[in-house]
Design a protein that fits this description.
Shape: globular
Active site: 101
Distance between the termini: 26 Å
Domain HIT: 7-115
Oligomer: single chain
Number of helices: 3
Protein name: Histidine triad (HIT) protein
Number of domains: 1
Largest sheet: 5 strands, antiparallel
Pfam families: HIT
Organism: Knoellia aerolata DSM 18566
Strand content: 15-25%
CATH superfamily: HIT-like
Radius of gyration: 13 Å
Length: 115
């Protein structure tokens, strides 16, 4: 998948307007359209990178920015430090949009293993 046909790149560019939950210079966060918890936000890098491993290899700072923005949103959502951060890397792990993204899930008890 290239940046030209990537749903999340369309969100970053403003071509499609998601429900924005927060943003930084490097990251954009928006509400998931099929939430799996009361708080379900996706945090993506502004540049197109296929997955979390590729983002880590390209820029540790941008990877850290995703996590820090997720923390800010969790605080704003008053999750009290009880939330889950998930990266799915590859189709076999459940990644369906091949633009790196971090799931922030909270607002309900989480089970382990997740499934």
């Amino acid at each position: 998948m290239s940046a030209t046909d990537c749903l999340f790149c369309s969100f970053v560019s403003g071509e499609i307007e998601p429900e924005i939950a927060g943003e930084t210079r490097h990251s954009l966060a928006f509400r998931d359209t099929d939430p799996q918890a009361p708080t379900h936000v996706l945090v993506v890098p502004r540049r197109h990178v296929a997955n979390a491993a590729d983002l880590a290899a390209a820029s540790v700072d941008e990877l850290a920015d995703l996590v820090l923005l997720a923390r800010t949103i969790a605080e704003r959502e008053e999750l009290g430090g009880d939330y889950r951060l998930v990266f799915n890397t590859g189709a076999g792990a459940g990644q369906s949009v091949f633009h790196a993204h971090l799931h922030l899930l909270g607002g309900r008890p989480m089970q382990w293993p997740p499934g």
